Amino acid sequence: MPFTRRDFLGTAALGAVSLSLEGQEKQTESKQTPGSPTHPIIISSWNGFNYLDEGYEILRNGGDTLDAALRVARGPEDDPNDDSVGLGGLPNEEGMVELDASCMHGPTRRAGSVGAVRNIKNVSLVAKAVMERTGHVMLVGEGAERFAVAHGFPRENLLTEHSRKLWLLWKETHSDWWGPGLASPEWNKRTLPPHSDNFHERVQRLYEVAEELGIEPDLRHAAVHKVLFPPTGTIHCSVLNGKGELSGCTTTSGLAWKLPGRCGDSPVIGAGCYTDQDVGSAGATGSGEENLKVAGAHTIIENMRHGMSPFDAGMEALQRIVRNYNHDMDRLRFVDMTYYVLRKDGAYAAVSLWTGYEPGKPHRIAVHDGTTKRNEKTVSLFEGASQEWPPDPAVRAK
After folding, report:
1. Among 28, 65, 232, 234, the one annotated catalytic
2. Would you say 130 and 112 are in contact if contact means Cβ atoms under 8 Å apart?
């Protein structure tokens, strides 16, 4: 069978984790005096890497930090081959692409966000328009769409041919999101019938339907994986210029095959994105529902306000997620979260709950500091690959 389930690798020994933490601190902790950056810096989730140069050019020319952050975020929104944001994003269970975004402008201490927006590609820019053109902070759904159109954003079909076929594959072969979630005391019912029928037969059927739908042979493996284990897709970007001005933004198409109207953490100020001009900027990708419950980005900024390093501030936020599950590794293996943290002096950190979503593919942060553009591995609280939710029958509850 060409499709194999990722192995759960478990947690690493405490000594190995301690070594990783030490390496991250040496790599990311700045020796500068807080509040006095010597050069601009941009950090983002890995999918912003290809657009860092364009964002940095805005800073070189004296442009605004939020404009630089939005230039990075807009790249994946415009890319029909990126199914995590904007055009080509994976749709909800009804086949409609719904997008979320938020932004914060440090110098003026303003914020804007939109949620569950249909038919508008660049929702990160719509979030900025909400910030600049209204007395509100958040608009959602149909109202946000009408606002966007009124301000010149064109309506367009965001469902590409490829994402449409992926949705049809899911629709014809898979279940929906009704039922107990991971936080429920009855969470392990998701591993029982109807989910516990022969897994390999289900996978084989998925490949057959994928062929019938005309999904290209070299894309079928990834398509089957996305149907069985719905991905989340998000981009965050935080920016600091030479004057110490900060901004941040986060944009996403959210969880694939979600219930219509579902909003994750990305459009929520203080969860998926938070910028405080006095302290720093932070954002998140991963399990949105879990990040909402700990207000992750705001928690990180407050931790730094009280003296924590960017690294320690992010790790403490991850520990709050662990606490919410009483350190139950049977459930935490289905959760993942990555935090991107930028302090006002230019020090930064990237931490994640797990090493990556699959073995050999670690979580990464993209960085541009004017001298080099690079992808760096995050440092994880637990070593190994997280598992996607819902689980397959091979991942049995104890």
Report:
1. 234
2. yes
